[in-house]
Amino acid sequence: MRRYAAPPLSLPQVNLGLIPKGYLGTQSTLNHIQVLIQAGAKDFYVRQKAIDILLEKAIRPKDYLGEIKALFEWVQQNVRYTKDPFRVEVLHSARRMLELRAGDCDDMAILLGSMLEAIGHPVRLVITGPDPLRPKLFSHIYLEVFHQGRWIPLDATMPYPMGWEPQTFVKQMIPMERKVTMMHSPPVSYGLAPMSSPNWLPGLIQSIRQGGIQPNDSRMKALLDLLHQRQLLRQKPRLAKQLNFIWVRGLSARPYPKTARGLERSLQQWGILPTSPIPLPAQSDHRPQMQPSTQSVRPVALRAVGKVKPVASVAPIAPTSAPIAQQ
After folding, report:
1. Are the C-beta atoms of 128 and 140 separated by less than 8 Å?
2. Cβ atoms of residues 111 and 79 within 8 Å
């Protein structure tokens, strides 16, 4: 049974860069490998190929050790070990490895790690070196997968069964840096689907902020029922105690801004309340509105005004020579 649909053919994208010398170069290469494994685990082509391998091998559901063994043996038997170009470190993506079916130890680790993590099996990297006098010199890399409390070595470059690992003088485990993400849609807090905010909730929070809630308030009862139904109060026992106290005893007529802020933050975290500012309930204003007074205007007829005669000119006053008295 083969359901794997190969991705459309396209020219490979090649990114060139310089690798630092020594252990810094090893760290840089490990960072790129981790990025490629995480990207491959989110690639639907890689996940579909991993599922098809399990179907072909007739692995029963929840046989997790059988899943690990099937993917390990497929990479071991279907990917040819091929060295990189001379003095060039090449890292292939998991999708590219499904097309090439050839690569060295880091390429096999990328492909196998991507397929394992795509179906829910966490992995980590192991790097080894041959010289105990040079503990920062590494020449080989393989995977370990976590299963039932222990890490199982997976070296697909060698013709040995799952669990075998090379005996070397230098070995270092590299954990994968993980972030909670989803492959198609953004994550929702606590895995809950967002819901519309009840129309009475902003008024309840405003009443808590300003104080003055009667015991056995119907809005508080509705909020408790909502949180109990979604099993959210178990996550915050202190908030559950506060809400039950308000439901039984009510709140005196004084402000409680800290309680309102904590409740608002929790409801936003659970997706019950939008993160935008809460619109306050509209308050009805019963005061009569003053209407502007209007009066009818009666047209007035205009009459002609007589001509204005010019004023006669006034002769200037001659200055006097008398002194001005000063007081």
Report:
1. yes
2. yes
CA-to-CA separations, 300 to 89, 296, 303, 305, in angstroms, rounded: 100, 13, 10, 15
Q: Report the distance separating Cα 89 and Cα 91, nearest Å.
A: 7
Closest of 109, 101, 171, 97 to residue 139, by C-alpha: 171
Q: List all residues 6 or more positions away from 74 whose beta carbon is below 8 Å from its beta carbon.
A: 53
Give Cα 195 to chain centroid, integer Å: 18
CB 116 within 8 A of CB 25: no
- CA dist 241 and 244 (Å) reads 5
Name the token pair of 73. 């043996």
Q: List C-alpha distances in Å: 158 to 82, 89, 113, 142, 234.
A: 13, 20, 16, 10, 50
Token pair in block for residue 117: 């993590």
Closest to 225 in 3D by CA, of 244, 242, 212: 244
- Profile the chain (327 residues) by mean pLDDT over runs of 10 residues: 58 74 88 92 94 95 96 97 92 94 96 96 95 90 95 96 93 80 43 56 84 82 79 80 85 82 83 62 46 51 56 51 44
Compute the Cα dihedral for 39, 44, 45, 51 and give only its sign: positive
Residue 74: phi, psi to the nearest 5? -65, -45
Please report the domains of the chain, with CATH numbers, ordered by start residue. Answer: 23-174 (3.10.620.30), 189-269 (no CATH)
Q: CA dist 148 to 65, 113, 120, 144, 327, Å?
A: 9, 18, 13, 13, 115
Residue 239 identity (one-letter amino acid): L
How far does Cα 10 stand from its chain's mean position?
31
